[in-house]
What we know:
40% of the residues lie in helices and 29% in strands. The protein is of the alpha+beta class. 28% of the residues are buried.
Amino acid sequence: MAATGAGSPSRLVQYVVVRSDLVHKLSWPLGAVITQACHAATAAVHLYYGDPDTQRYLSELDSMHKVVLGAPDEAALSGLSEKLTEAGVAHKLWIEQPENIPTCLALKPCPKETVQPLLRKFKLFK
Length: 126
């Protein structure tokens, strides 16, 4: 694991990427979109619960760090999911049912520096 300094482990972060067009173009209520992000983040932690990084992230309950980014549309979100899969980055693409609409994805908690290059083109969700 990469270090941030004098033998300290790197900070873990959970990235969540949400489709911004759901709010800005498709007029979904903001609360509904936040719910999608919560579903994806919870699902990723559940799926990768046994992972050492996930366990360390959960053990630091009062200092969890999440970053919520925006994807412009479904194509960008799906493309990111494919890119993450190809790079071996564990994540959960949340598909809202019964509509079968990909709304967001969440990565398992991991060291920021290991995934940030893959997420560089996505900006903070607004």
